[in-house]
Every structure is written in structure tokens, then in C-alpha cells.
């Protein structure tokens, strides 16, 4: 059974448009920054949705009661809270575009696996594989 080239072109065009939407969403997600302050107000962190720590501010009051273990725990807890919020926002934005099915498992904010599959369809490579090169 042969598929018409018009249908194949429509599928490839739709995939190209979807790939561009995913790229734009990925760029928006990669720009997400969340700033979080510790409960005691002595630690402020900023993280990206990819988990990168981009800023760490320690209030000088931390030196009033030197406790390096407590400070380390506060810093880590604050980073975890900020990262969780950044991931929630990234997941919300990605789910709007990709749907929940493609976001099962650990969150990959680069969405490279989904983007790769759509680019394969957009370029016609996936269709060629399905048809065994008979297009």
C-alpha cells in the first residue's frame, strides 16, 4: 500500500512545526530560574530547571552561631526546595506542549529524546524506515 506524497508532506510539515514549538518551549524552560530563601532567612539560592546552582547568598548573620554542619544542611535543603519548584514549573510548561505521556520518568528539561523522534519524522527518516525506503 502506497501513501500519497501529499499525506507524507503534510505529516512532515506538521512534525517540523511541532519540533519548532518544542525547541521554543525547551528554550523557555532552560531559562527558568527559581530563587528560594531558607526558613531562617540566612541562605538564598537561585537554581535553573536543569538543577544548576547559579547564585548562593549567605547572610553575614551565619557567623553569629558557627555551625558548619547546620549551615551545610540549610544550604542543601534550600537548593532542594528551589530545584523542586523549578522542576515543577518546567514540567508544567513541557506537559502543555508534549503531554504527560512523553514526560514519564525523570524530567529531562532539554527534551532531547522527544525532539529527536519528531525531527526524524520531520526529515522523513522515520517514514523511510517504516516504508523500507519505498517512498
Structure write-up:
The chain is rod-shaped. The longest helix is centred in the middle third of the chain and has 31 residues, at 68-98. The chain has a three-stranded antiparallel beta sheet with strand order 1-2-3, with helices on one face. 56% of the residues lie in helices and 13% in strands. The protein has one domain: Nucleoid-associated protein YbaB-like domain (Ybab, Chain: A, 2-Layer Sandwich), CATH 3.30.1310. The protein is α+β, with helices and mostly antiparallel strands.
List keywords for this structure.
single chain; 135 residues; alpha+beta; Ybab, Chain: A; three-stranded antiparallel sheet; 4 helices
Mean pLDDT level:
81
Helical proportion, percent range: 55-70%
Backbone CA Rg = 22 Å
Question: Domains counted in the coordinates: how many?
Answer: 1
The tally of helices reads 4
* Strands in their spatial order, largest beta sheet: 1-2-3
Q: Structural class of the helix and strand makeup? A: alpha+beta
Q: Segments where pLDDT lies below 50 for 5+ residues?
A: none
Question: What is the N-to-C order of secondary-structure elements (H for helix, E for strand)?
Answer: HEEEHHH
The rough form would be described as rod-shaped
Q: Give the quaternary arrangement of the chains.
A: single chain
CATH homology superfamily: Nucleoid-associated protein YbaB-like domain
How many β-strand stretches?
A: 3
Strand content: 5-15%
User: What characterizes the major β-sheet?
Assistant: 3 strands, antiparallel
- In the CATH hierarchy, the third-tier topology is known as Ybab, Chain: A
